[in-house]
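Our preliminary data section would be incomplete without showing what the modeling component actually yields. Below, a chain of 230 amino acids is followed by its predicted structure, encoded as tokens that our downstream tools consume directly.
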Amino acid sequence: MRTKNAFTLAETLVALAIIGVLASITIPSIVNSYNKVVYQVKLRKIYAVLAQISQYAVADYGEMSYTDFYDGSSEKVQEWYSNYMKPYLKIDKECFDESGCWADEVKHLNGDEVSNLTARGIGGNIVTFRTLDGTLFNADGNVPEDLNNLFGIDSDVDGLVLHVDLNGIKGPNIIGKDIFVFVYTNKGFVPAGNDRDKDFVEQECSEDGAGIMCASKIARNNWKFGDENL
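Predicted structure:
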């Protein structure tokens, strides 16, 4: 007589348990690796688009100095947005000093909450807008002291800072993970930290740092994310 070999119920349950454990270990790693590639490509694309916008605006309006558009008022930031960004992007939604276009809670890479965050965005006198692909942009004027000390840009005049949230309002909403910072200068857009050395930028874009200069670190690393970025 032939005997039929089969798994017992206990063996089947053990096998399923092992599969579940392996899945719980490998799937998050696969998802994380996929997200890293997606974010790397998107961040690099956004920087290329910002560079193109600067070139188009110069062609349409002439050479620009970032002192020409900012005098500390909301109206000037809105004027800059209307002239130098809106014509070159596909805008889905925009907010001028109002809620509805930015996450209610944003944190730094080290876990600290962004202290000057409001429900409408980061800082005051701001323009926040969303493009058709779901990317959020937050444009805010800043004084030279902040440009130097917070954003790593050597400047003796006011300028404009752009926070970019790659995946919109959904999490993690952490600067250095899905939110990255660029500064508008007379050279066009450059990553925050552009005027700081490698060691300074890497320390700022670490688990102990604010994450503001992570776009600069990633750009210098051939647009590859580090472990701290995802």
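The CA atoms of residues 48 and 142 lie 23 Å apart. The longest strand covers residues 136-142. Preliminary results of this kind motivate Aim 1 of the renewal.
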